[in-house]
Design brief:
With 272 residues, the protein is α+β, with helices and mostly antiparallel strands. It contains five helices and eleven strands; from the N terminus they run βαββαβββαβββααββ. It has helices at residues 29-41, 79-84, 143-149, 206-218, 226-233; strands at 3-11, 48-49, 58-68, 89-96, 109-117, 131-132, 151-154, 175-185, 192-199, 248-254, 268-269. Strands 1, 2, 3, 4, 5, 6, 7, 8, 9, 10 and 11 form an eleven-stranded mixed beta sheet that branches. The longest helix is centred in the first third of the chain and has 13 residues, at 29-41. The protein is globular, with a radius of gyration of 20 Å. The two termini are 30 Å apart.
């Protein structure tokens, strides 16, 4: 019988060329997982992720699924798979999903978090997990800008140039809806900040370009009122710089609860 298995995955993207398998042979999260899953199931496995992350981007809650005829226990896809994976990739949970579940197309939205540090000297151990943006940062300056971003907008100005050229005749286009955007200090640590974005979808490098623009506003290099004009311009050159990949975390993929087996005894968590 064909099974659909859903995985909850966390990874440190520092040593990988992003999520998606690459023709050039660079290491990727998808390839690493597919290799280990194929060995476990003793058959070729194709893993479908909820989205793509760029090189150096991290995930706390990536969701992916695959189908297999293997009858091995579900625990093999959490604890067993973790024993085979490198320490920078971990399976947080595995569960049976309904046959029509798709990690990407069943998703209702995503939450991303961007971490950055505005102090003068960054600790070396933090350089892979937060961007260093030195300078006075005033989060209150962001309030009008954050409010302007919430809602459905054409986010062409916050998309990497040329990223949709091959899909110009199809797809959703550049309109996305952000339901929540906020900027908060990190555990009362001086000069440590997080900006969190929740929406129904994101364009290529949209979060990083939004973050770069918002940091410029918080540091007084742009005015908060510019956001409306940037959106209206529908041109990448109108927005700010692209923030480095190292500070970006995919936190959560949002789904309707009924697409999984609710509280099923077959569900297995890799965490205590």
């Amino acid at each position: 019988m064909l099974r659909t298995v859903r995985l909850l995955i966390a990874y440190d993207g520092s040593g990988y060329h992003g999520w998606q398998r690459q023709r050039q042979g660079e290491p990727t999260i998808q390839e690493e997982l597919e290799t280990r899953l194929s060995a476990l199931c003793q058959q070729p496995i194709t893993l479908h992720g909820a989205g793509r992350t760029d090189a150096g981007v991290h995930a706390l809650g990536m969701v992916a699924h695959f189908q297999t005829t293997s009858t091995i226990p579900l625990v093999a896809f959490s604890k067993g798979l973790n024993a085979l994976l490198p320490p920078d990739i971990r399976i947080l949970g595995a569960e049976e999903a309904q046959p029509n579940f798709h990690s990407r197309f069943s998703a209702l939205g995503k939450t991303y978090r961007y971490d950055f540090f505005t102090g003068p000297v960054q600790l070396p151990g933090n350089r892979f997990y937060q961007a260093h943006c030195p300078g006075l940062f005033v989060p209150k300056r962001l309030e009008p800008a954050l409010a302007a971003l919430v809602g459905a907008h054409d986010f062409s100005s916050f998309e990497r140039s040329g990223s949709r050229d091959k899909e110009a005749m199809g797809g959703r286009g550049p309109v996305r809806m952000l339901t929540q955007v906020n900027c908060v200090p990190v555990l009362a640590r001086p000069d440590h900040w997080s900006i969190r974005f929740t929406g129904d979808g994101f364009l290529r490098q949209m979060v990083r370009i939004l973050t770069g623009t918002l940091i410029e506003i918080g540091q007084g290099k742009r005015q908060p009122e510019e956001v409306a004009a940037i959106l209206a311009a529908r041109n990448r050159t109108a927005a700010g710089h692209t923030a480095p990949a190292c500070g970006l975390f995919l936190e959560t993929i949002h789904y309707a609860p009924q697409i999984f087996c609710p509280q099923s005894p077959c569900s297995e968590s890799a965490t205590p």
